[in-house]
Specification:
The complex is a heterodimer of chains A (336) and B (175). Chain A has helices spanning 2-39, 55-65, 76-92, 120-141, 145-168, 170-176, 181-187, 194-197, 201-214, 226-229, 239-264, 280-300, 306-335, and strands spanning 102-105, 108-111. By secondary structure, chain A is mainly α. Chain A has a two-stranded antiparallel sheet. In chain A, helix 5 (145-168) runs parallel beside helix 13. Chain A is globular. Among the domains of chain B are: 1-82, Four Helix Bundle (Hemerythrin (Met), subunit A) (Up-down Bundle); 136-175. Helices cover 78% and strands 0% of the residues of chain B. Classes of the chains: A mainly alpha (336), B mainly alpha (175).
């Protein structure tokens, strides 16, 4: 019977997280266009329903009924499978992210996380690195020189920035002494947020920068760079396949923000001592602020040049994140 | 009982998929397809590690092999733009191929011997299954790595450093 309850609980949680995430992704596309519009002193989409609230639905219907073109010389199996890899990896990231405390539900203790893995953080890195295959294979398989350039850039950029990304969270790991994301959040309870209480503010910034590079957003959107590569890796994609890449990008964006919240900003911890069944509010609020920041900076910074990005990653971020590990070690020795 | 059946279904499914992927790796003509099936093979092996209760090895398998190393392999294939091999190549036995076949046969014989005949002389460590579920797999690995096997661990890191320096020197010489 315990097994059945466990199965029901997990399926409900998976459905909930999936539904909320897809809703967020749909309305993030609208939010991004609205906010970018305001930054550029124009209105943004406002035709479908009041404030353009129906825009994501209209976009979805449009993408669904477009013709699905596969280039004649494309590598068909890989061309079809590439967007699936992207979206699957982006959604799977949410399996280990805790979005709330432990709640009582019909006399059963339910913790608001899908899987309480001991290797939670390693799982995040592993899945994220698998997700990059979607971009790389998508660019390569479409038999297009711009696509290939985008894919090559994506591969090089990911190899460079994944390193710095993993190193930037080492300080948090050293302080927490565990890879379990739930335990990391529990240790930060009561305002002991890693970003401020344990002087992990700079690694927090490094993490955000590397996260930007990881999800290929401006100023690091080298793989798609409209101006020079005409959309890069997804140049040959149309219809739902393109929409899948698009959704994967936003889901990954939310995932990066959620992980930053978990590791550095105390997860579901917050003021007012909310009861456990409301604790997710803080998690959602912090993640939302970070997501807003990511959209905001897209409207602010111009795209970097490719060699600048590589130099910045290897010669600036990597040494600094390494230095942070030593700094954190020193801090831990000094404070005991 | 239900758990046991589940275990066997997962094991047989992954094992067969791993063998299928391994066969596909050496029969595909396009190098990228081979690489993709190799990734599938690595993922299956990671699942087998999970069935053996070693989460850490499983996730490292995915992260290092399926994630990082295969990404480099694909990167190189794309950079060199390796074309599909011609369908029919004359089978001429060069010395290298003969040595290769002999080595593969020896390795295969060793595998059969190791699995079927030889009983592993493993010693029982302090980390029993109960203790590992109590403190977690990673802490068990780290505990052994930084106490009992510290010296081999450090030597391995020097080996990697030598590898990095070698790569830098090799790439510098070409200029």
């Amino acid at each position: 019977m315990e097994l059945v309850y466990f199965l029901i609980e997990t399926i409900v949680k998976v459905g909930l997280v999936f539904g909320v995430l897809m809703g967020c992704v749909a309305y993030l596309t609208l939010a991004e266009r609205k906010i970018l519009g305001r930054i550029q002193v124009r209105y943004g989409p406002n035709r479908v329903w009041p404030f353009g609230l129906g825009q994501p639905i209209a976009d979805g219907i449009k993408a669904f009924f477009k013709e699905d073109v596969i280039p004649a010389k494309a590598d068909k199996p890989l061309f079809v499978i590439a967007p699936m890899i992207s979206i699957t990896a982006a959604i799977s990231l949410f399996a280990v992210i805790p979005f709330g405390g432990v709640i009582e539900f019909f006399g059963r203790e339910v913790s608001l996380v899908i899987a309480k893995l001991d290797i939670g953080l390693l799982y995040v890195f592993a899945i994220a690195s698998l997700g990059e295959y979607g971009v790389v294979l998508g660019g390569w398989s479409s038999y297009n020189k711009y696509g290939l350039m985008g894919a090559l850039r994506a591969a090089a950029q990911m190899i460079s920035y994944e390193l710095a990304l993993a190193l930037s969270v080492m300080g948090v790991l050293m302080i927490a002494g565990t890879l379990n994301l739930v335990e990391i959040v529990q240790q930060q309870a009561g305002w002991h947020w890693n970003a401020f209480y344990h002087f992990q503010f700079f690694p927090f910034i490094f993490y955000l920068i590397c996260g930007l590079a990881e999800i290929n957003r401006t100023p690091f959107d080298m793989p798609e760079a409209e101006a020079e590569l005409a959309c890069g890796f997804n140049i040959e994609y149309s219809s739902m396949k393109f929409a899948l890449f698009f959704m994967a990008e936003y889901a990954h964006l939310v995932a990066v923000c959620a992980i930053a919240t978990t590791l550095f900003l105390g997860g579901w911890d917050g003021p007012f001592n909310l009861p456990p069944y409301l604790s997710w509010i803080w998690f959602v609020a912090k993640t939302g602020i970070l997501v807003y920041f990511f959209i905001w900076q897209r409207g602010t910074f111009p795209r970097l040049r490719y060699d600048q990005i590589m130099r910045f990653g290897w010669k600036f971020l990597l040494p600094l994140t390494l230095a942070n590990i030593f700094g954190t070690g020193l801090y831990m020795v000094l404070t005991g | 009982m239900a758990g046991n059946v589940f275990y066997w279904i997962v094991f047989v499914g992954t094992a067969l998929t791993a063998i299928f992927a391994a066969v596909m790796v050496i029969t595909r003509r396009s190098p990228i397809h081979s690489a993709m099936f190799l990734i599938l093979n690595f993922l299956c092996i990671a699942v087998l590690y999970l069935l053996l209760n070693s989460q850490f090895i499983a996730i490292v398998q995915v992260m290092i092999y399926a994630g990082a190393i295969m990404m480099l392999v694909i990167f190189v294939i794309m950079l060199l733009n390796v074309e599909e091999e011609e369908r029919r190549r004359k089978i001429s036995a060069s010395p290298a191929q003969i040595i290769g076949v002999v080595l593969v046969l020896i390795l295969f014989a060793q595998l059969i011997y190791g699995v079927g005949v030889y009983v592993l002389p493993g010693e029982w460590s302090e980390f029993t299954r109960e203790r590992i579920t109590q403190i977690g797999d990673i802490k068990a690995v780290a505990g052994l790595l930084f106490t009992k096997f510290l010296f081999p661990f450090e030597v391995a890191s020097i080996l990697l450093l030598v590898g990095i320096i070698g790569a830098v020197i090799l790439s510098k010489k070409e200029r």
